[in-house]
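Homework-ish question, so no full write-ups if that breaks the rules, but can someone show me the predicted structure for this set?
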Amino acid sequence: MSFPYITEIAQQTPTKIVLLVADGLGGFPNESGKSELETAKTPHLDTLAAESALGLTIPAYPGITVGSGAGHLALFGYDPLKYLIKRGVMEALGTGIELDKGDVAARGNFCTVDASGTITDRRAGRIPTEESAPLAERLNAAKLDGAKVKVYPVKDHRFVAVFSGEGLLDEVSDSDPQREGKPPLEVRALAPGSEKMAKVANQFSKQVRELLAKEKRANMGLVRGFSMMPKVPSMAEQFLLNPACISAYPMYRGLSRIVGMKILNGGNSFREELAALKRHWAEHDFFFIHYKYTDSAGEDGDFARKVKMIEEFDAYLPEVLALKPDVLVITGDHSTPSVLKAHSWHPVPILLHGKYSGKDGIAKFTERNCAKGSLGQFPGSASLVLAMANAFKLNKFGA
Amino acid sequence: MSFPYITEIAQQTPTKIVLLVADGLGGFPNESGKSELETAKTPHLDTLAAESALGLTIPAYPGITVGSGAGHLALFGYDPLKYLIKRGVMEALGTGIELDKGDVAARGNFCTVDASGTITDRRAGRIPTEESAPLAERLNAAKLDGAKVKVYPVKDHRFVAVFSGEGLLDEVSDSDPQREGKPPLEVRALAPGSEKMAKVANQFSKQVRELLAKEKRANMGLVRGFSMMPKVPSMAEQFLLNPACISAYPMYRGLSRIVGMKILNGGNSFREELAALKRHWAEHDFFFIHYKYTDSAGEDGDFARKVKMIEEFDAYLPEVLALKPDVLVITGDHSTPSVLKAHSWHPVPILLHGKYSGKDGIAKFTERNCAKGSLGQFPGSASLVLAMANAFKLNKFGA
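A: Not a homework solution, just the prediction itself:
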């Protein structure tokens, strides 16, 4: 739950908040008995931690593992149970596609079907991107009644289909049966109003089959996760902030666009992101900066690389501190323990630094130390409220 | 959120709960590195703390600074997001006015307007009470259609206007534009049903101008925060308690009246409050006792005085302990760090003592020690539930 009266008590001030997200930051001990954060040499984080308030956030609910969408929405101050970001939209955002109002995005897979139309390989032999990209391009030839489709290649067997046209809604079922030995499914409307989308999706499936008929491997496409951009009040409306996003990766820029952040050019690396932060420092009162590499290493199950990525993150910290933000929050959107090679449900370490954050005096920023921090455990979406409070951007609630 | 089945599981027992509220108790380190609680010499609290369970409460939501109304409602077991106490009602309660059902209270300011009606001083030069009190009295001459107004002097330029009559509702805008260089605003209905209140308020404004026309400084009045008493189920209904309030200050008696407490005569000091506690010890199973002076010192930014007020509070503690309450809760309604000279968002230290509360063995009652206590961090409105549980006033939930 988020705080329902936040807009009424929010006030604009010149103070600056920096939200530094190391993606998938939280980890777990490997056979050494220590987690990635516990193993990494992080002199700057250590010094900062001792002078900050520490705690753990719960992105959605205890025990719940969240995707990047839900995790970031929470950090941006929104209840991830209220605003759902579904598969098609996430895939579009990750591909750098800007969805317009009314667009419905779906995730697509090239697949192989036999003469009877039964799926024999859901991933078309994991066809490489060089082969699949021209096929995705070819699907743009599909002609639909009262709608258009634009197909974007992604990676290997994956593509994104974006449907646009009057009266499309996203409450429809998938054509992907998610198993082999079955034919692609008819797309059905799951709620009144979504009938046109279902009809258009079925037309698309039929034409995909025709357009790819002569291919050997990728002779069909499956679509799933039809979804539209969630209607989220902007951070300017909701929190009276003037927020900016700095991310080298399209997905996080897309998520930031959902909440109305100004997207700054973060280049292609964290170094370039920090350069952008300095360049635009005067222009915003809230900066979201994204560090991707902790998550990628965790997802790959590469404990040593995650440790190294944390150490690199630490080395950049003085550049952020030199700007003297009034409030600095360092956290992750979720945990990604290398030993699990995946996102996990473990609460996420958070560090809050400001003149009135308090100093816990805990000299290392780790999962176990954060469990002893003065912030306790709290909902991920409350971290923005705490940051705003510490930046004196909130008035008193109630007389 | 409060526990929705509390009434079903509540039971009456002879056990006694004392809720001892040191207003604005939580503080923050000053340049010495220690907070007020950390600095104060509190031998009785120290001994008690070691034999109690400690924790931190969050009155409304992490990062949210609450007013006294919301903070106390939470301590009385109510969700402060559900029952809002607005400015007019708080001002009336603080002035010792008993509002009847259907009354609408507004906070008033005497102000200065020029010949064209533009506000030149929102506080009429902070006119002293001796001058403003007779003017407030004069405003009682206002004649309104289908309603009456009673005006009470407060302090300096402030007054309270209480409107009564059939069909008044409080969803109306303010006449106070909250800035100079503008004329007073027309009061507008903000929801259906509040039209009569808006009309009556505008009649009042017109007559205030006429009644004060010959004054030099206070020649007009502005009103804001129109509000009625919130409809709150009594503590007797909700918790099956027989509660009493002991407070030397009218605001806290007023807040206690909202939840149906019996108001005992607390005299004019904490010493007299404790005398009342002893006198009425046999008559109730729940006592709320209010200690004001910690908050006043914090609001004044007087660190040393807040330390001293905590030490005085500590000195009185043996008198409460001598009564051997089954459960004793010591906490604040919010934090008021002297360094901020205001209420703050920082979680509030709480101490719970009872035969089965557990003993944390932490030998000093401070903000940082409470962050390590066995109660953890929890919503302010849960403290009553914990107190009732420890007093065996709650049955099992669910079969």
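Now go work out the reasoning yourself. Hint: The interface with chain A takes residues 1, 28-29, 56, 60-70, 80-81, 84-87, 89-91, 225, 337, 339-340, 342-347, 367-368, 371-372, 376-377 of chain B (CB under 8 Å).
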